[in-house]
Amino acid sequence: MMLRVFMILGLIFVLAACGTEEANKKPEAEPTNGQANEQPKKPSEGNGIVAGQMELNVLSFEEDKTVIELKNQTERPQVMEFTSGQQYDMWIRDENGKEVFHWGEGKMFTQAIKTETIEPGGSKAFTVALPQLDPGTYTIRFKVTSKPPFETTFKQTIE
Q1: Which pLDDT does position 15 carry in this prediction?
Q2: What secondary structure does DSSP assign to the chain, as a single string?
Q3: Half-sphere exposure (CA, 13 Å, Cβ side) for 1?
Q4: Omega cis (within 30) before 148
Q5: What are the residue boundaries of the Intracellular proteinase inhibitor BsuPI domain, all occurrences included (predicted)?
Q6: Handedness of CA 125, 108, 139, 61 (dihedral sign)
Q7: Which CA distances in Å does 9 have to 6, 12, 13, 65, 104?
Q8: What's the confidence (pLDDT) of residue 49?
Q9: Side-chain half-sphere CA neighbours of 152 within 13 A
Q10: Closest to 33 in 3D by CA, of 151, 157, 124, 127
Q11: pLDDT given at position 3
Q12: What pLDDT, on a 0 to 100 scale, did the predictor assign at position 52?
């Protein structure tokens, strides 16, 4: 009977410890693994702050990648909390509404809480590797998976 109690307590301790080592590790930043390709920009005079908005902008859309920027257009630092190693997701639909690409599908992410702060006028850029797309017009939905989340949808024509 006493052996069972110790076995159950041991199992509880092992399960409670799962994942705590990963939470203390800093993830490597690579542009195509769900981590942001951070390109911090320092606030400066005349940075065009529009009070009260966080803004997602498409900086570039190329054959093999897109760069999307989250800019703090508020007058206060904005704190984002990520509950996993995934910092963004992207979905691409063709002209018929069929999903042709979902970036996060089939990927696994660490379960670690991470917070990041974007200062007023500052930004964070996300570089996403793209699949080969046939010519046509696509609807792209991009979401920063933080709390609070930020999302944008835009159309892109491939010739």
Answers
A1: 42
A2: -HHHHHHHHHHHHHHHHTTHHHHHSPPP--TTTTS---------TT----TT-EEEEEEEE-SSEEEEEEEE-SSS-EEEEESSS--EEEEEE-TTS-EEEETTTT-------EEEEE-TT-EEEEEEE-----SEEEEEEEEE-SBS-EEEEEEEEE-
A3: 0
A4: yes
A5: 67-146
A6: positive
A7: 5, 5, 6, 50, 37
A8: 52
A9: 14
A10: 127
A11: 54
A12: 76
Q: How far apart are CA 136 and CA 144, in angstroms?
A: 26
pTM of the model: 0.67
Q: Which two tokens stand for residue 38?
A: 């951070």
| Three-point CA angle 128, 61, 101, nearest 5° | 50
Domains of the chain by range and CATH? 2-158 (2.60.40.2360)
Please report the pLDDT score of residue 63 as a whole number. 87
Phi, psi dihedral angles at 17 (to 5 degrees): -85, -15
CA 63 to chain CA mean position, Å = 21
Instruction: Tell me how far CA of residue 131 lies from CA of 36, 55, 100, 102, 158, in angstroms.
Output: 18, 25, 9, 10, 12
Q: Mean pLDDT per segment of 10 residues, for the chain of length 159 residues? A: 52 45 39 42 45 88 93 94 94 96 93 94 95 94 94 93
